[in-house]
Specification:
This protein is mainly β. It is 9% helix and 46% strand. It contains 2 helices and 12 strands. The protein has helices at 2-11, 170-174, and strands at 38-39, 45-47, 57-64, 67-73, 79-86, 88-94, 100-104, 107-113, 119-123, 127-131, 141-153, 159-169. The strands form 2 sheets. Strands 1, 4, 5, 8, 9, 10, 11 and 12 form an 8-stranded antiparallel beta sheet that branches. A 4-stranded antiparallel beta sheet has the order 2-3-6-7. The longest helix is centred in the N-terminal third of the chain and has 10 residues, at 2-11.
Length: 175
């Protein structure tokens, strides 16, 4: 049902950032599209103080098992729709204090790469959202979105959160 609602929102013209998303439940089985599921590897990230949080933030991924599958492609072969699924745990560290929290980014989701070079993420589960300083549409920070979200990313990487059930502010938790 949730996928139908998100599909209706997309069809109505609703338009999502961060690293790879995660797979819609109605497409989680089988191969289809231009191939089967392939593993995604997430690398550690380090954000200077003031870029995402007021302090230097490190992010690593102690649990990874995300897979992606291109479901639809443009005539040139570039992905139009990519589904993601699987477990992903992020560990966030305030470098100055050593304080750490973990965020469960596991689940499923879909990334739509639109012709104008913007993207739309529909995530019925969990999602990590990194917003850098200077984004005019959303406060900078590191967020764990859970319970469903729809996020639009402009061609210039500006983020608009169109729907979110719950957001955890990682920077606030580590301050």
């Amino acid at each position: 049902m949730r996928n139908r609602i998100l599909g209706v929102a997309l069809a109505a013209g609703v338009l999502i950032a961060a690293g790879p998303a995660i797979a819609s439940a109605d497409t989680a089985g089988g191969t289809g599209g231009t191939g089967g599921w392939t593993p995604v590897t997430y690398t550690a990230r380090d954000y200077a103080a003031g870029n995402v949080c007021s302090f230097e933030l490190k992010e690593d991924f102690p649990t990874q098992g995300v897979e992606e599958r291109i479901v639809a492609a443009y005539p040139d072969g570039s992905p139009l729709r990519t589904d993601f699924r699987g477990p992903l745990i992020a560990r966030f560290t305030n470098v100055a204090t050593g304080a750490q929290v973990e965020g469960d980014l596991s689940g499923a989701g879909t990334l739509y790469n639109l012709p104008d070079k913007s993207s739309l993420w529909t995530i019925p589960d969990n999602f990590g959202l990194t917003v850098h300083a200077g984004d005019p549409y959303h406060a900078q920070g590191e967020y764990v979105l859970s319970g469903g979200s729809v996020v639009s990313v402009s061609p210039t990487d500006q983020i608009a959160v169109l729907y979110q059930a719950k957001a955890t502010d990682v920077c606030a938790e580590l301050s």
